[in-house]
Design brief:
Radius of gyration of chain C: 22 Å
Structural class of chain C: mainly alpha
Distance between the termini of chain A: 26 Å
Order of helices and strands of chain A: HHHEEHHHHHHHHHHHHHHHHH
Strand order of the largest sheet of chain C: 1-2
Shape of chain C: globular
Largest interface: B-C, 47 and 53 residues
Largest sheet of chain A: 2 strands, antiparallel
Radius of gyration of chain A: 21 Å
Largest sheet of chain C: 2 strands, antiparallel
Oligomer: heterotetramer
Helix content of chain C: over 70%
Structural class of chain A: mainly alpha
Shape of chain A: globular
Number of domains of chain C: 1
Distance between the termini of chain C: 39 Å
Chain lengths: 474, 649, 498, 105
């Protein structure tokens, strides 16, 4: 690494700088000016987000353990964008909950470092970097999960998360060590070259995939998700369900499609089963949830199952479909969680029944909720439909028609429970609905961005074309 | 044929009248609407008479044969295929011209009559609107040049009859009757439609002239000859098609067993009964058979015609027997109508084709013509009587000759006519029918002969019990003679009834459209016999009913069960009710509805319920204890490893 | 902006105007009405242009085509175009939406939202009728399906939530099949290395392997058939219609259910002819069953809307039946029947809504002799009943006759027998229709309801529109058939050539 | 490189260690004990890496570096875990994992 190829990892470096500046600010700012930390963090990160959309050239650092190419850079930008929206929504929460304890800066620092971890993970060139990224992305979030230390549920979520995460990473590590034993290296390129799949290596690979699958919350490794999402602060559930899941999906994709290509054929029909299981279990659990956060948690489990459809395709179509889906998915889920958060902050209500008659009092909010849920369910003209459609198309390109059929039936089930909040908010009227309230400017911005995204990204094909323009990574 | 190009006006005027009256029913009050309707009908009448005259005596006859005249209004109204199409065309030939006269005359009379009869009825305008609608449909029916077109008007007369029967729509009985009439005829029409489809399929045309042409008949007979397998009960498929069409005719013409709607149809206003259920609509079936006569005659050497004859004869007898026992005068007339139409069917059935062979055909048409006149007359008179007495039942009448002289005389004329006493119209037509039947089959003839006597008997039973018999005390309001408008119609029809018989019908109407000559052989035993039996029928009626006697009771008790059956119309209604309600509704339709709600819909709901149940069942795997989660986690890993290892080798 | 895209754009504009500028019921309905009148003008203009083009000798299969790449990655285009059938369907939609606007003249609560959803629904329908690209078609199809949930759920009556959910889920389940079929056609439809495409005109030129057609045709057929109330996938329709608000029942039964037959005609059979022939006999049984079955179960119903829903099942069964007969005459009949049933059933639901709005009862055993109370509505109801049982002079007759004649013209005893079987439905229809009118319209007046308001002007307008078109079709069928024939001729080619 | 000890034996040892860890994690009810079992697993992997590196590719040091990182990260993990567990203890006065099941179904 030297000055001329230094800019290759400018995202990570910038984030580090931002973190340092936050630290400095934290130290320098006097007690009564602490609240400016928030604005500072937002501004800095906004700047980061903007720059991350400037394309970056292909290259590698540290002897190939850090790789970057247009798609991964774009993906980092997408992640940053998602985080940006989440931050916008979290302002009120920080003001109300964290400032009193003077935790505002820490929140930003932890989120940013987790994002760094994800960035490293997605552009990892060997298992070491991959493992470091994984851990770096997980731990701060665990800390944040338990951040509301006065709230028993939050802490319980934290405990569950860290324990299970450690187990999964331990298993993943064991797998890595097995692969290392058989392939004789931890560098992806070398391993790709030296794959002839003895049993030991297969076991190793399975363990690795499961370590990632834990992060994506595939069945049967999804149990933590619901509990953690419910317990954690809504912002963090949001982050978990879109950002860290998205990063993990990307890694799984690159590992499957590029690094362990040879293993794909072995692995496909296992994934076939897992995807069906994931969709079904996720839907069935979401079906009977009352708590919105838990509900969204299970819905995001089900969504992971849909992503696997495209994972099966193992071709560029799959790559495009997945990236596009993640993009849309970030928009929809952020919007949905955002509504939940705004409401729970104002009223402390998180149950579906509490939303009864919401449209009569807060029409805009319930519209946002409806569009977000429709997008998750995949109903045109909202972008979610197109994203899902491309996933199906990717699977169909390999002829998995039966799987697609099962998937679409699952969509029907999911539509049922996505309509439940809509039913509560629109169809019903209640004596004591959630009263009208004005949400703060930041979350409004986030909502507007999300809505525009959901309504435009689908009908306007440019974005998809742009993504598919740079997804020739195979 | 441009000298007839005006002819589309004949159906057009009534329909326009209908629309006008229908839309302005609220505004225009009695009697203006009545005048409008009558005026338009008068115009139609004039046109029809002009057309008929022109056709018969100027244009129609081309070198010794009445050539049909076709006026095409819209070709290809609906094109099914290049061969099969519904063309709006008007076909003018002897029978349609004749029917024009009948329909327009009777309709006009009824219009005039109703001015008085429907006086101060709330639905006066509506009544005239309906009348115009019916007239339109009936004229269209007789004029249509295309089998499908006739079906269209067939349906339309059905619906106008439905509307008119249910005219007093607040009377449940009327509503029920109208429903019954429509559904029964609709049921028959279904067979008609199937018949049409088959004819279209085999005959490759819906156009009457094409269907009746030599070439088509030849083609069909050839086809039948080559496809012996396509036959059922010994009759070829095409004969069955004709029989199906004839079933349609049976429905409209109230032939047994599809007659049950006719008696109930008397719920409608009496003029309607006169117009629709005596003179015009009910003879549509006869007209239909006459229309397709060449087909009926030539295919399978008239196998279908045999059916027509038998059904006709049987219905004639059956109706006559029931007519003996009815108390409601309109019902008696209704059954006599049924019986007379049976006569006409019989006549067609026994007819041949060429020249004098076609006597039956001619006679049938002739009887249709005369019957229209005197039966309308009878109904209208009955209407006048009911108008005066405010009752339909004979027991409330008697000795009316004192109060209603005109009605009495015209009724007598009509009764004599229908009984077949010379020189009244009925005699000639009936006599020729019997002659034709005699040449065809003695047994059929005998039935006809018997029915002639019975007819005379029950008609005079009616006459005597209304006008003579006992001297009923009518209390404060005495029955009065009908007002002028009604009386005018009665007298006019009376005159028609007297003179109609002398029309040289065979010169005009015949099966092969070739005029032939036929006169009554006064000396032949047939003629004398028929006169005698009619006379004896009248005599018996005189003995039993001229004065109040106890013969009727004796007679009835003597017959015992037979009388009861006849009085209850042989329980045909009950049979139908049983079949429809008990079997179709309860045994078929109900289970289906249940099946739909509970099985099919239930299955759909079951899917949903199962899903929710499943969700409820599996919730316990999410215990909330992280060691269980870890357990699942690890076992998941192991399971997958196992699977791969297993399936790999 | 080309003449067809406008049909999708104008509703969107109306929606935006409604969202942004309207507050009250009066404004909302005014905006909707004006917008739809514009739409009507466009439809008439379209018909005029269509005839003009055809008479100028342009016999291309689709007119006014426009083909813009959308997701070029998938070779999915925004490809639109119309032929006779679609032109008529567009006209039908417009008229029924207008009538629906008049019928829901006083809709509350959330009037504005009601009209918005209605327009969105219409947008989807318009898009469906003009799209020539499977992808575009599917997008619009789903757009059309979803607003139903809100419309029934918010403004419905009775067990509205249940009905709305059921309808939505069943239709989504159906579109699951459809989606699979669609992707199947996309990937297998282009044998021999051509780039896969969603464009039906291109696909019709390519040879889809028979073994795939065998798999995907039934999926497509059932997928479309479900919304076309194909037995036994029709159960959403009685509940849905019973609970839906008037205008929605009209639009749904009048137009949305036609998407089924239309889709089968336009996409399924056209793209998979061998499959169609292979499955013909099997589906014929289902269709015929639906015809008589629907009619027979209608006899037992006492709820006006249920009667109508089942009669719709029966009549749309006829549409599918005719389509399966694969015969020009029958297909003409099918399309004409779609059109005519659209108007008739819309009229029915409109009247039911009006009567229910007055009496708050839909049970025919509970009201009698409405003729004296609301004469106009009753007369209209009788007219509708007569039209429904196929009385000549009204649209139903012509359509059904085409179907029956077409069905019988097959040189195949099996099909002829089925046709005869279907013919029986005309009697059963007569039975339940007359039973209905006899109970409700005629008979002695129920005292409770005397003095109910007579028909209001906007109701009269709605009735006028619908009755007018029913009679127009019934008396001038040749004018309407000219549109249908030319498109049928093109679309039946692949089937008869096989 | 220890004389007379093959990689196989070492890896068997680590595997056994690993599964002992898993067993402990699944069975112990005390959170601290579970944490220790976790340590066991992680250390097994650390040994793995070093041994594999030493036996198979002595020239490149990937394995040993990896194990260093593992140790560091394990420490961090433990610290975080302990912190959270302490929080839990403050709130519920227990470290029994069986009690930690408020969030479920």
């Amino acid at each position: 690494m030297d000055l001329d190829n230094f800019m290759l990892m400018r995202d990570e470096i910038l984030l580090t700088v931002i973190i340092l500046m936050m630290l400095v600010a934290e130290v320098l700012l006097s007690q009564k000016n602490k609240k400016y930390v928030i604005q500072l963090g937002l501004v800095l990160f906004a700047g980061y987000t903007f720059q991350s959309f400037i394309p970056n050239e292909t290259g590698e650092l540290f002897g190939g353990s850090y790789k970057t190419y247009p798609l991964v850079h774009l993906f980092k930008a997408i992640l940053a964008f998602g985080v940006m929206m989440i931050l916008l929504q979290s302002v009120t929460w920080i003001k109300e909950k964290l400032l009193p304890y003077d935790f505002a800066a820490e929140f930003f620092i932890l989120i940013f470092s987790s994002l760094i971890g994800l960035n490293f993970m997605v552009s990892a060139g060997d298992f070491l970097m991959f493992y470091l990224g994984l851990e770096l992305s997980t731990m701060p979030i665990i800390a944040l999960t338990a951040f509301e230390f006065w709230n028993h549920r939050s802490v319980e979520a934290g405990v569950k998360y860290i324990m299970l995460a450690s187990v999964s990473s331990a298993i993943l590590l064991f797998g890595v060590s097995l692969v290392y034993a058989t392939a004789g290296s931890i560098q992806f390129d070398v391993i790709t070259g030296a794959m002839h799949l003895p049993l030991l290596e297969i076991i190793g690979l399975i363990m690795i995939f499961i370590g990632v699958g834990f992060k994506i919350s595939l069945v049967p490794f999804h149990f933590w998700a619901a509990d953690v999402y419910e317990g954690a602060p809504t912002v963090i559930s949001n982050y978990l369900s879109v950002i860290s899941k998205g990063g993990a999906v990307y890694v799984l994709m690159t590992l499957l499609f590029i690094v362990f290509k040879a293993f794909q054929t072995e692995w496909n029909w296992i994934m076939y089963g897992i995807s069906i299981l994931t969709m079904l279990i996720g839907n069935l659990f979401a079906l009977r949830q009352q708590n919105m956060k838990r509900f969204l948690a299970f819905s995001s489990v089900a969504q992971a199952g849909f992503i696997l459809l495209a994972m099966l395709s193992n071709n560029e179509l799959g790559v495009k479909a997945i990236i596009y889906f993640l993009l849309i998915y970030i928009f929809s889920n952020v919007a949905a969680f955002g509504v939940v958060q705004v409401i729970s902050l104002k009223t402390g209500k998180e149950n579906i029944d509490d939303y009864t008659g919401l449209y009569r009092t807060n029409p805009k909010l319930s519209l946002v909720l409806m569009i977000a849920l429709f997008s998750l369910a995949g109903i045109p003209p909202v972008a979610g439909f197109f994203a899902k459609f491309f996933l199906y198309a990717a699977a169909a390109s390999k002829g998995y028609y039966l799987l697609i059929f099962i998937a679409v039936l699952n969509v029907t089930i999911s539509l049922y429970y996505y309509l439940l909040p809509v039913r509560a908010a629109f169809l019903r009227t209640s004596e004591n609905p959630i009263p009208y309230f004005k949400s703060d400017i930041y979350s409004k911005m986030a909502f507007v961005i999300a809505m525009v995204g959901l309504l435009v990204l689908g009908l306007y094909s440019g974005v998809f074309e742009y993504i598919s323009g740079m997804s020739n990574i195979l | 044929m441009n000298e007839f190009s005006y002819i589309y006006l004949i159906p057009l005027i009534p329909i326009l009248t209908f629309l006008f009256l229908g839309f302005t029913a609220k505004k225009i009050k009695e009697p203006v609407s009545g005048y409008i309707g009558t005026a338009s009908l008068a115009a139609v009448f004039a046109l029809s008479v002009y057309t008929a005259y022109k056709y018969f005596f100027e244009v129609g006859m081309v070198n010794g044969k009445y050539e049909p005249v076709l006026v095409m209004i819209k070709k290809g109204w609906v094109n099914f295929t290049d061969k099969l199409a519904i063309d709006l065309g008007i076909l003018l030939d002897p029978i349609s011209a004749m029917m024009l006269i009948v329909v327009s005359t009777i309709s006009l009379m009824v219009h005039i009559y109703s001015l008085g009869y429907m006086h101060s009825d709330t639905g006066f305008s509506r009544f005239y609107a309906y009348l115009s609608l019916f007239t339109f449909s009936m004229l269209g029916l007789v004029l249509s040049s295309n089998l499908f077109l006739i079906y269209i008007f067939w349906e339309l007369v059905g619906v106008s009859s439905f509307l008119l029967i249910g005219f007093y729509f607040e009377k449940p009985s009327a509503v029920a009757a109208s429903k019954k009439a429509f559904i029964v005829t609709r049921f028959a029409d279904m067979f008609f439609l199937i018949g049409i489809l088959m004819v279209g399929y085999f005959g490759q045309s819906f156009d009457f002239e094409t269907l009746n042409s030599e070439s088509t008949i030849h083609m069909i007979t050839g086809w039948i000859a080559n496809h012996q397998i396509f036959s059922f009960m010994g009759l070829s498929i095409f004969t069955w098609a004709l029989i199906l069409i004839y079933i349609g005719g049976m429905g409209k013409s109230a032939m047994f067993p599809l007659h049950i709607w006719l008696p109930d149809a008397m719920e409608g206003p009496t003029p309607v009964s006169a117009l629709i259920h005596a003179a015009t609509m009910v003879v549509a079936g006869v007209y239909l058979v006459a229309r397709l006569f060449p087909l009926f005659y030539h295919i399978d050497n008239g196998a279908a015609l045999g059916v027509v004859a038998v059904v006709g004869a049987f219905s004639a007898l059956f109706a006559a027997i029931i007519a003996f026992t009815q108390e409601d005068i309109k019902r008696v007339l209704a059954f006599s109508t049924m019986s007379q139409i049976g006569y006409m069917m019989m006549a067609l059935g026994v007819s041949g084709y060429e020249g004098h062979e076609g006597l039956g055909y001619m006679a049938g048409m002739f009887h249709l013509f005369t019957h229209a006149m005197f039966k309308a007359l009878l109904f209208l008179t009955a209407g006048a009587i009911i108008h005066a007495v405010h009752s339909n039942f004979m027991k409330d009448m008697g000795g009316l000759h004192k109060y209603m002289p005109i009605s009495r005389w015209v009724f007598l004329i009509a009764a004599l006519a229908i009984s077949g006493i010379p020189p009244f119209a009925g005699f000639f037509s009936k006599d020729e029918i019997l002659t034709a039947a005699f040449e065809y089959n003695k047994f059929i003839w005998f039935i006809g002969f018997l029915v002639a006597g019975m007819t005379a008997f029950y008609m005079f039973r009616l006459y005597f019990r209304i006008f003579h018999n006992k001297d009923t005390d009518y209390g404060d309001h005495k029955p009065h003679e009908a007002p002028f408008t009604m009386a005018f119609a009665l007298v006019f029809l009376g005159i028609m009834t007297i003179i109609a018989g002398f029309i040289p019908f065979s010169e005009l109407v015949s099966a092969d459209r070739m005029p032939f000559h036929s006169e009554i052989h006064w000396t032949s035993p047939l003629v004398i016999g028929s006169i005698l039996i009619a006379a004896s029928g009248i005599g018996i009626a005189y003995l039993m009913y001229y004065k109040e006697t106890d013969y009727p009771q004796k007679f009835a008790s003597g017959m015992g069960a037979g009388y009861k059956w006849a009085k209850n119309k042989f329980y045909m209604d009950e049979l139908y009710i049983f079949v429809t309600h008990k079997i179709i509704f309860d045994k078929i339709s109900k289970p289906i509805a249940w099946f739909d709600r509970n099985v099919i819909d239930g299955f759909m709901n079951l899917l949903g319920v199962t899903t929710e149940k499943a969700a409820e069942k599996i919730k316990f795997i999410q215990t909330g204890r992280m060691q269980d989660y870890a357990m699942y986690f690890v076992s998941g890993v192991i399971a997958i490893v196992m699977l791969i290892v297993y399936f790999r080798n | 902006m080309d003449i067809l895209t406008l049909f999708v754009v104008v509703p969107v504009i109306i929606t935006l105007v409604l969202v942004l500028f309207t507050k009250t019921l009066e404004q909302a309905r005014m905006v909707t009405l004006i917008g739809m009148l514009v739409q009507l003008g466009m439809s008439i203009n379209l018909i005029y242009k269509y005839l003009e083009t055809r008479n100028s000798g342009d016999h291309s299969i689709m007119l006014f085509q426009k083909n813009i790449p959308w997701f070029s990655e998938f070779n999915a285009h925004y490809h639109i175009g119309v032929d006779g059938v679609s032109v008529l369907m567009i006209l039908l939609t417009t008229l029924i939406v207008i009538a629906g606007t008049f019928v829901s003249w006083k809709i509350t609560p959330l009037s504005k939202e009601f009209f918005i959803s209605l327009i969105v629904l219409a947008t989807g329908v318009y898009g469906f009728f003009i799209s020539l690209d499977l992808f575009t078609m599917f997008v619009f199809y789903e757009i059309a399906v979803i607003p139903m949930y809100l419309l029934i759920g918010i403004w419905g009556s009775g067990p509205r939530e249940y009905a709305a959910m059921k309808l939505t889920l069943m239709l989504m389940g159906a579109s699951a099949l459809l989606l699979v079929a669609l992707l199947g056609i996309y990937f297998t439809g282009s044998a021999g290395g051509q780039t896969p495409t969603f464009d039906i005109l291109e696909l019709s030129q390519r040879e889809m392997p028979f073994e795939w057609q065998k798999i995907f045709y039934p999926l497509a057929f059932i997928g479309f058939g479900t919304i076309g109330a194909l037995f036994p996938f029709h159960t959403w329709s009685p509940d849905g219609h019973a609970s839906a608000p008037t205008a929605v029942s009209m639009l749904h039964a009048g137009v949305l259910m036609k998407l089924g037959g239309y889709g089968i005609f336009r996409f399924a059979m056209f793209l998979m002819p061998e499959g169609a022939l292979f499955w013909q006999d099997f589906f014929l049984i289902l269709a015929v069953t639906g015809v008589t079955y629907g009619a027979l179960s209608a006899i037992q119903q006492t709820d006006l809307k249920y009667i109508n829903a089942y009669s719709s099942v029966s009549h749309l069964g006829l549409v599918l039946f005719a389509l399966l007969m694969i015969n020009k005459t029958a297909w003409n009949g099918a399309m004409l029947q779609s059109l005519s049933h659209g108007f008739i059933t819309a009229l029915f639901f409109a009247l039911i809504g009006m009567i229910y709005g007055r009496t708050h009862v839909r049970d025919i055993t509970k009201m009698q002799g409405m003729m004296r109370i609301v004469p106009l509505l009753s007369v209209a109801y009788v007219v509708a009943a007569l039209a429904n049982l196929g009385l000549p002079g009204f649209s139903g007759f012509v359509a059904e006759m085409n179907i029956f004649v077409g069905g019988f013209l097959n040189n195949d005893l099996y099909k002829q027998a089925l046709t005869v079987f279907a013919v029986t439905s005309i009697v059963v229809t007569a039975v339940y229709m007359l039973r209905l009118t006899g109970r409700m319209v005629f008979g002695p007046t129920t005292k409770v309801y005397t003095g109910l308001p007579k028909a209001f002007w906007y109701e009269k307008v709605a009735i006028g529109i619908l009755v007018g078109f029913i009679t127009l079709i019934g008396t001038l069928p040749f004018w309407w058939l000219q549109f249908i024939e030319d498109s049928v001729n093109n679309f039946i080619q692949p089937l008869v050539s096989k | 490189m220890i004389e007379g000890v093959t990689l196989f034996e070492i890896m068997s040892l680590t595997t056994i260690l690993f599964f002992i860890g898993i067993y402990g994690f699944l069975t112990r009810t005390n959170l601290i004990a579970m944490l220790m079992s976790l340590e066991l697993m992680v250390n097994a992997e650390a040994i793995n890496f070093v041994a594999i590196n030493k036996y198979l590719s002595p020239t490149v040091m990937q394995g040993q570096i990896f194990s260093l990182f593992i140790i560091a990260l394990a420490a961090a993990e433990t610290a975080l875990a302990l912190a959270i567990i302490l929080h839990l203890y403050r709130l519920t006065k227990t470290v029994d994992v069986k009690e930690v099941k408020e969030l479920k179904y």
